[in-house]
Amino acid sequence: MIIDELEKKVQGKGVRIVFTEGWDPRVQKAAIDLKNNDVVRPVLLGTPEEIAGCAQKNSLNVEGIEQIDPNNFDHMDEMVHKMVELRRGKMDEEKVRKALKSTNYFGTMLVQMGYADGLLGGATYSTADTVRPALQLIKTAPGNQLVSSCFILIKEESQLIMGDCSININPNTDDLVEITMQTANSARQFGVEPKVALLSYSTMGSAKGECVAKMTEASDRLRRIADFDIDGEMQFDCAVSEEVARLKAPNSKVAGHANTFIFPNLSSGNIGYKIAARLGGYEAVGPILQGLNVPINDLSRGCTSDEIYKMAIVTAAQKDMDI
Fold this sequence. Notes:
Blueprint: H1 2-10, E1 16-19, H2 25-36, E2 41-45, H3 48-57, E3 66-68, H4 76-86, H5 93-99, H6 103-112, E4 118-121, H7 127-138, E5 148-155, E6 158-163, H8 173-189, E7 195-199, H9 210-225, E8 229-234, H10 236-240, H11 242-248, E9 260-262, H12 266-278, E10 283-290, E11 296-298, H13 305-320
Parallel strand pairs: 1-2, 1-4, 2-3, 4-11, 6-9, 7-8, 7-9
Antiparallel strand pairs: 5-6, 5-10
Helix pairs in contact: 1-13, 2-13, 6-7, 8-9
């Protein structure tokens, strides 16, 4: 399976991952397992009192796991100077020092300055609180204009990729082209050769509407530039059912065989992956952020320690694969 293969690839490589909520028992449990299995080098952020108090209360042994207190960091002046430079004209030194008291900003700057290879947050922070510092301080990778997200959906031998399910509210055609390229790239890096379906309530012009038009245009543009199979617009049943595909899109290489799905907006994407997870029995790993210079990933606030463990593997794999 995807996660097992990624774990084998990153194991023993010493990829250093910052966890912004070092005081959370789920994070601590995942960090202990990651360290014991030599998957990554976890770094817990928080005050000694917060981290020790959580460990004691939950009978967890965090001895030997690196911990950094934002209130007592040896290179804080250097970090402040760098962040003022990055936020020139938007944040002065006073505002920067105040922001760095929050572990989401502090952790992002640790990655930005090379003290860590990647960051995982969101066990208690919102998605916006995790993504905002990344957009302000890390920026997008060369060739990328936006940040998007995808989920890996896993059920037995079935492995699907869905995007964008957590970042872009109503992407336009240009955005959809970039989101598709990013998601297909992620699929390949996670061992899935993408067969991409651009989803809609219409299949090959069977219905009209603004949403249909942007998916059709994005599909036309992508077919000219993509080096993977892509088709659309199409309804979900056409994308996954060979029987339906024979009726609705008999000449498509993707219809009936799609494994990578692009949604027209955030509402449909978020609803879609959660239906797959809650009713379809798929395990959802993500959201996995795409398009950033370095790996920064978000967690669901309802995440388990096992989900944190798997997302740490994904984050380390993104670093290992230089995405």
